[in-house]
Specification:
Mean pLDDT: 83
Largest sheet: none
Oligomer: single chain
Amino acid sequence: MKVKAISKEDALILAQRDESHFFDHKALQVSGQKIQKISTAFANAD
C-alpha cells in the first residue's frame, strides 16, 4: 500500500473541509469492511 505524507497545514484544510458529492469524512472507527462496501457502492453508481 502506498502512503503519502501530508503537511500539518494540508491536514487542517482537509479536516475543516465541508462534505460534498466528491468529498466525504469517515470516522477512524469505521471498519475496513464498511469502507470497502461504501467504495464499492460509489464505484457501481452512475
